[in-house]
Design a protein that fits this description.
This protein is mainly beta. The protein contains two helices and seven strands, in the order ααβββββββ. The chain is elongated, with a radius of gyration of 21 Å.
Length: 134
């Protein structure tokens, strides 16, 4: 009779648990386009609905991910034990207006669309700055 393998919790959080035990996962389809308004990132990931996607801006990077529960049968006290699965981690160009990034999910195509508008400098902008004396 084979012994059941016990994997310590610390190791599970450090390895790619989903690909190791679940037999792998499909890769997301990510495309980036550019037009006169800015950039558009489109992500299609099998099995993910609109509530699954998470989008964060960290420093100068756009991180798109979703959370996976670590165990189907969770040990007591570990009801919310999850790991992040990265779908995209993109460098943001200097010409992106980070404050106006928007994301929406299209039900018809089942894709997450992230719009990264340009940060156009104002033309003929002039401002006088007073010099403080201490």
């Amino acid at each position: 009779m084979k012994a059941k393998i016990q994997i310590p919790q610390e190791i599970l959080t450090a390895i790619d648990y989903a690909n190791t035990t679940n037999g792998g996962m499909s890769e997301p389809n990510l495309s980036i386009t550019q037009d006169e308004k800015g950039y558009e990132v489109r992500i299609k990931a099998a099995g993910l609905g609109p509530d699954s996607f998470q989008v964060d801006v960290l420093n100068n990077r756009l991180w798109v991910y979703h959370l996976l529960p670590l165990f189907a049968d969770r040990p007591d006290g570990m009801d919310n034990l999850q790991t992040a699965r990265t779908l995209g981690n993109l460098f943001l160009p200097n010409d992106v207006n980070v404050d106006k990034i928007v994301a929406h999910y299209e039900q018809s195509t089942r894709e997450l669309n992230i719009t990264l508008p340009y940060n156009h400098p104002t033309r003929n902008f002039r401002r006088h700055i007073d010099v403080d004396i201490e």
